[in-house]
Each structure stands twice: as structure tokens, then as C-alpha cells.
Amino acid sequence: MSSYEFGVYEQVLPMGWIGERPEDHRLVRQVGAPIPAAWRDVVVDRKLQCGVRVTMERCGFIEYDVEDWAPGLSNKPTGYLRETSAAALPALVQRLRLVNAHLALLHCAVAMHHENESVPVRRVRKDDLYTFAGIEDSPDFAWFGSDGPRQESVTPAERERAAEWLTLEMAETSLDWLDAVVAAGALFDLDQLSLGLDALGTHDFNTALGAFWYICESRLRKLASAHGLRYLKKDGTERSPMISEVIKDLEAAGLIGPKQREGLDEVREGRNALLHAGTESGQSMTDKCLALATELLAGVAAGLRARTPRPLFIVL
């Protein structure tokens, strides 16, 4: 393995097994039992057009190789990224955005294939990343998390896994979208989707509304720019328009519909009330903003859907 690889695991567990559930899946109840080899079968191994290679194990461990993805490269080896030095920080930020965007897209893939179901999204932070490094006093290498080597036995965390939610089709769809998102320069927008969905897991509607509204405003401004809508000062130089002006002009140009414009105006006012008057958001307002944000993101990732994460019945 190369020094450009890193992985994530615990944050994927609530989403379920990837592909078919292994026959010995009930071993999740036996804390301390050796992890069966079948759990670590590689079920997805794909190099994206953007240069990132993604490998997914049945148990949910996801490896990312960014050797051919320039934004994820650092002047320091991967193993030192935890230090967050000035040289390493930009690459670490991009890697975290990539992972969090991908987990949000896995959520969206489930939402697209299941009319009424949703899976939790948990943010990945610096200390959640696994790195591939040498074992002390040994010539061998292994995956290491923040608290030591990757576990070879069942832990209580394994019981957080839902049964049979992430099909291979969903996994592949998430990677199709991830490629499209990177190509469109929309990685930060999807990172904000992850932030908002994670916030909904603790009913933090204020944080979620801010994240979802950022997506709306970002996509609306990019839509206006892509269709040549320009805003000039009296001296002929470019100016940054208010978003309400952009929304009005996009409707006039037929780029958004009246219903969409009404919804955007409503959530814009809700976000402004939160920011300027301290008026807290509720679930209804946040859900409306999420729906509008994903509708606009569908212009980048065709068919993308998301919904408020709901508790799942865990089948062991």
C-alpha cells in the first residue's frame, strides 16, 4: 500500500453492510470474537476519473487512495497528517471534505432507492481517519486509528450496523456522484450537506439550516454565473449581488420556477431571522431547506436525493 491511503470505518457502520450481509453476521453480538475473513471481503474497488481510488469492504471499512488526486497530496507523508502542520493542513482538509462528501452521498443513494427510509450521517474528523503505518519493532504494516491498530475482534460498535441497506448499486451510485461532484468543483457544497445531515442527528436545526442554506446560495450563484447573469456597478465593474436579487433574476430567466422561488424566499427569510434576530429554526423550515438544497445539487449529481435521517430498526 502507498503512503497516500487512508480509511474510515466507525462512521460508516450505521449505514449497514455493503452488498450482501455475510452468513455469520450475528457474530456482532459476540464482543471479543475474531472478525471473520468474509467481513473484510473487498466488494467495491474503483478508480474514479478524478484520480481517487476507493476500496470498500463488506463490513464498511472504506479506503481512499489520493496519490493521483492533487488536492489530497501533502508535502508530508500521510501518516503525519494528524500533526496538522502548515504543510499538511490543506491536504488534510481536502481529504476530510472528500470523505464527508462521500458519506453524505451514500445517504443520498439510500434515499434515492428507498422511498421512506434514511440512514444516519456521522461527520468524520481528523482523529477518525485510519492511516497505514509500520508496526513498532516489526517489519509489517497495519491500519492504525487514533487509539491503535485496527481491531481484529468484534467490538460493541459493530452492533450499530443496520442490516442490508447499502447495496452494491447504492455504493456505485455514490461513487458516480462523487466523481461528478469533484469534477464540478462542488466538494465543499457536499461537505456542507454532510454537516447539516449530521446536525439533524442531534436535532440541531440551526446548524443544519445554515449548512443547507449555504448550498442553496452557492448553487444559485453558480447557476447565475453559468448562464451569463452579470451584475455591474455604475462604473461598469463587477459587483456581488444580494441573493434575493439573484433568485428574482433566475426566475425571470426561467432557470427556476415560481414554486422554487417561493420556497427559496421562505427559507432565506428563516435563515436571516436566525442570523440577525436569533429566531431559532425548526424541523419544518430545515426540511424545506434540505429539499431545496438537494434539488439544486441534482444539477451536479443527477437524481440525487436526501432526507432527514430517521432512526432505523437495527437487525442483528
Describe the protein's architecture and organization.
The chain has 316 residues and is an alpha+beta fold. The protein folds into two domains: 5-183, no CATH class; 187-297, Up-down Bundle (Four Helix Bundle (Hemerythrin (Met), subunit A)). Helices cover 39% and strands 10% of the residues. The protein contains seven helices and seven strands; from the N terminus they run ββββαβββαααααα. It has a seven-stranded antiparallel beta sheet, covered by helices on one side. β3 and β4 (62-65) form a beta hairpin. α5 runs antiparallel to α6 (258-277). The protein is globular, with a radius of gyration of 21 Å.
Short key terms for the protein model shown above:
316 residues, alpha+beta, Four Helix Bundle (Hemerythrin (Met), subunit A), 10% strand, Apea-like HEPN domain-containing protein
